[in-house]
Structures are given as structure tokens and as C-alpha cells.
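Practice problem 4.
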């Protein structure tokens, strides 16, 4: 599996493509593309690299991570859309405030299936482990690929920081517990691709993240 990343929208949100090299199938995780230029960049990457989009995955459903859901589903019809069931209220709340955040053209979509901790997600020959990591959002999950020591982490753990917990459904103690039990138990060499900012490693955050000391 290889990971391709884009940074989209006013929140500088990281959108990821998880690519199974054997089959050229890919999953799009947290599409934040909103403007026509952002949407074009994502579509052109998929087309130029001859990828087949087979999954749309949301780590959680805050607005900056779901702005491009409708674009993905309309551009690649029939793509399964998976979200943890506990984050459905988060997703369904987005239309009530999207305009206030400067995204009046946001169009909602409903998941076609759900993510469940311990039930793997498959992209071609690639198998992802789903880990339940609430605290930033009630139904937050991360995706772990052991063979490449890779985590797609959403807004749980950042370089020298952690996700905010002052939004509805957030809880600081819960977030710290999620990090300690679901991320800090991984090998130090594991790369974390977060929802904002640069990639980091478990070891780097274990040694130097001020929120975890």
C-alpha cells in the first residue's frame, strides 16, 4: 500500500488516497475538496495514475473532512461510503452550520455501510485494521496498515499535539485514553498521517509530545 496526500479547504485538511499497488484500487479517506480546483486535482490524480476508486472512508464527520464526500460519490458512482455509526449525528449536523463556515454549496450524503472496530477494510489485496479512537469525535476511527507501519489518523494525534476536544461530542480524557490504548501501543517506527499538518511517528510523539508526557 502507498499513501498519496492532498491538503484542501480553508482548514488545511489532509485528504488521503490509500493505493493497493497490486490491483491499482484505492480508497479515498476524508475528502476535504470543496472548490472546483480542489476537486479537479483529486480527479486528475486518480485518472493520471489509472486508479480505481473502490471505497470512501471517513475517520470522522467534522465538516472539513466531509466536504468532498458528495463529489467522490458522484464522480465515481456506486462507491461504498463507510463511517462509524456513532458519528452519524456528527455527519447529519453538518448542513446546519456549513453556510456559517463559508461552505454554502455543501451537499450531504448518507453512508452505505459502517466501520466497526476489529472488522478489517479491504482495498484490493490491502487489509486495513479499524481502530476505535473517540475523544475528538464520538465515532472517530483510525486505519492501521501493519505491513507498512502506517496509520491514517484523522484528528487524534498530530505532530507535537492532539485533537481538540471542545466540539460537540469531544472529551479530553477519552481522547487521551484512545491515544494511549490504540496508538501508543503501536511500534515506534509507525508513521502517522494526520488530518492536519505533517506526518509524524509514534516514537517521535512518545518522546516529545507535551500532551502525552
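Answer key:
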Amino acid at each position: 500500500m502507498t499513501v498519496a496526500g492532498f491538503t484542501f479547504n480553508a482548514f488545511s485538511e489532509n485528504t488521503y488516497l490509500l493505493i493497493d499497488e497490486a490491483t491499482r484500487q484505492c480508497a479515498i479517506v476524508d475528502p476535504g475538496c470543496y472548490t472546483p480546483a480542489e476537486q479537479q486535482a483529486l480527479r486528475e490524480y486518480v485518472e493520471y495514475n489509472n486508479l480505481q476508486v473502490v471505497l470512501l472512508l471517513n475517520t470522522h464527520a467534522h465538516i472539513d473532512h466531509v466536504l468532498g464526500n458528495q463529489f467522490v460519490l458522484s464522480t465515481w458512482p456506486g462507491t461504498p461510503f463507510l463511517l462509524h455509526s456513532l458519528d452519524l449525528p456528527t455527519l447529519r449536523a453538518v448542513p446546519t452550520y456549513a453556510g456559517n463556515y463559508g461552505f454554502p454549496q455543501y451537499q450531504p450524503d448518507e453512508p452505505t455501510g459502517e466501520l466497526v472496530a476489529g472488522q478489517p477494510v479491504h482495498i484490493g489485496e490491502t487489509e486495513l485494521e479499524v481502530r476505535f479512537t473517540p475523544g475528538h469525535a464520538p465515532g472517530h476511527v483510525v486505519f492501521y496498515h501493519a505491513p507498512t507501519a502506517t496509520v491514517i489518523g484523522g484528528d487524534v494525534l498530530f505532530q507535537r499535539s492532539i485533537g481538540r476536544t471542545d466540539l460537540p461530542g469531544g472529551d479530553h480524557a477519552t481522547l487521551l485514553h484512545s491515544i494511549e490504548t490504540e496508538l501508543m501501543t503501536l511500534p515506534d517506527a509507525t508513521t502517522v498521517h494526520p488530518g492536519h499538518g505533517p506526518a509524524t511517528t509514534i516514537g517521535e510523539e512518545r518522546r516529545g509530545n507535551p500532551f502525552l508526557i
